[in-house]
Amino acid sequence: MTAAMFDYAPLFKPGLPAPAAKWTGLAKYNFVGGNNDADQVPVEGLMAAAASVLKREGHTLATYGLANGPQGYVPLREFLTTKLKRDAGIACAAADILITSGSLQAIDLVNGVFLARGDTAIIEQECYQGSINRLNRLGVNVIGIPLDCDGMRMDALSSALDDLKRRGVRAKYIYTIPTVHNPTGSIMPQARRAELLKLSQAHGVPVFEDDCYADLLWDGQRPPALYAMSEHGGVVHVGSFSKSIAPALRVGYIVAGWDILSRALAIKTDAGSGALEQMVLAEYCAPHFAAHVTALSRGLRVKLDTLMEALAEQFGTAAEFEEPKGGIFLWVKLPDTVDTLKLYQSALRAGVAINPGPEWSVDAAHSKSRMRLCFASPTVEEIRDGIAALAEVCRTEFGVPLRSANVMRAAGRL
Amino acid sequence: MTAAMFDYAPLFKPGLPAPAAKWTGLAKYNFVGGNNDADQVPVEGLMAAAASVLKREGHTLATYGLANGPQGYVPLREFLTTKLKRDAGIACAAADILITSGSLQAIDLVNGVFLARGDTAIIEQECYQGSINRLNRLGVNVIGIPLDCDGMRMDALSSALDDLKRRGVRAKYIYTIPTVHNPTGSIMPQARRAELLKLSQAHGVPVFEDDCYADLLWDGQRPPALYAMSEHGGVVHVGSFSKSIAPALRVGYIVAGWDILSRALAIKTDAGSGALEQMVLAEYCAPHFAAHVTALSRGLRVKLDTLMEALAEQFGTAAEFEEPKGGIFLWVKLPDTVDTLKLYQSALRAGVAINPGPEWSVDAAHSKSRMRLCFASPTVEEIRDGIAALAEVCRTEFGVPLRSANVMRAAGRL
What we know:
Number of helices of chain A: 13
Order of helices and strands of chain A: EHHEHEHEEEHEHEHEEHHEHEEHEHH
Helix content of chain A: 40-55%
Number of strands of chain A: 14
Strand order of the largest sheet of chain A: 2-10-9-8-7
Largest sheet of chain A: 5 strands, mixed
Shape of chain A: globular
CATH topology of the largest domain in chain A: Aspartate Aminotransferase, domain 2
Oligomer: homodimer
Distance between the termini of chain A: 66 Å
């Protein structure tokens, strides 16, 4: 190629997001991303599943969607009907499920069905970053509802809905992660779910239920899904295999009525989601899912305990948190003097990756000194060493935690 | 659920496409869709590949993108650099490749980087339906360039570019399928490729090269890719494994400079494309791709010959076509009295699915009596029986082919 290279700049679509930076690898102590425990990927089971399903049905890969139609591989949808009934109380048929390329595509499709620029959406004040970013890019007005230890506060939701009604605005949906909330790890109790459904119905605003962390529970217990409890159908439910099996597999799903699915299908112009991943998951999950998730959750609980101990040792009272009910992340409050956006930058230079609070919240002030720590991927040694390194960075930059406090606490444990 | 179901209708985004119809299965004689030959899916090879790559690297599925970064599994990108060099003359590095969820996502990302409502794009007059539909949905002005047996006509392209220049319009790209064109099956000769690149450079309009059928060649020969021939870099290249291995696997790719890839990555918010399909493809293709594609093409050629014979027998001179240079489809001209949009409806009722010409063209008059027939998926028996059934429908509805003509021809073959 010559020096006079083609200049694309004048041709790019206006308003594109900033170009991606070149990927430089993962941090040494990686407390970000929904990654899972490498030792707990059921490799032997997936190998056996791949062998048996390919041997039996491999030739069907010659046809788009395995000739199972655009909603996805039928045995995977049938497995989901069983799993959703058992775990979430959802009575649905395979025809009510659309398999997607991860729950991110599910969110994109639901957004694509409902949201136009200038619309209003209600979310939890602290919320999955990917959902917040999507709403911002779509130019949607986002209303964040404050949380308590049981999830979205119904008094605040009721006020917000009343306020919108006064202004003549009908929100497009109420997005919630009710079962192992991201980032707080709370589970909304059944009574509050009923309240939420009542408000949804009264205001004609549907619920968008994101249940993608709901398989990872310390005690295996959860209330029924909002989708299951609704008597009027105004709930769209999405889920994923990323947290229960492996995130690099991109398989999620939408459970909804045909009025929603027929419109989601009309904008799902990808000729189907990856079939091999669907086939292997169906073959593996039908016999093994429940036992795998129980064992996986037990292992994750050990890592959470390690993380909470390490925070107590290294940060002392400077790190406050509610113990999550399941999942892969801990939402931590540091002293008000700490700005986690700055801490994030300094920590990254020291090899520690954290999620700064403001990226997981629509309330900048509330989240300024908070951070999300994902504990599934690092080993217990990496958790201990990484939190020690993070405390050192935080102390250098913000003067907390005090050295004496945590040395005393550590000594107390000997 | 009660009778008073939630009414979503007032909440849907305005301007959605028509809701999807419920899927009712494939036609008995299925001459549509980019499906492949079920007998030629390399099932044993894929099984072996799945076993070896999962055993060696299965635990990496615990990390999004296998910790290979957002551009995709490195061994797959490395295989592609070798294949693209050997087959298409493209010298590129793994860093110049972005793995996508099928070439449809690749097209969506390139469109997302360049196209805003009201923009202008140049395409071939007859063109892949998925590309035409995407441009229409994006509200882009489409200029179709007529074809001859060597692909896009350069005199017509030159006139169109001059005309745009006079009107002060700079098109965003020239989209072309130069190597086994869809639907005509032509291959653009090297000299014409050079002309195309000269016009592209002179007018500052980049080339969007869709090479997704280019692996299926009767004689294994093809000119270098436009991407390889360009001396100024103004080419974005996309490809796919759908036609060479299996369409139900959703793995495609973009080859482009970092100026393009960094912007495509910024709007690829799917947390990576499916990793298992990438892993299995890399493991299978590195040793087996070339031999597989040679054998596959040989089998497809037999099916094409069967289709051309069946058309000659059943339609006689009423079906005209140029023999394609490779691929999986034949572009057929029927007598002017035939409206293939009507034929499509009647044929479907008789169990025969065809692609009516107007769905694969931006010139309604030129394509009215043309149709695309895909021959990779049906068996040779289904090809013969399906074309006989199609001829019967066409005769009943349009009076052609005449019965005497084809009976005479058939008799002549005994």
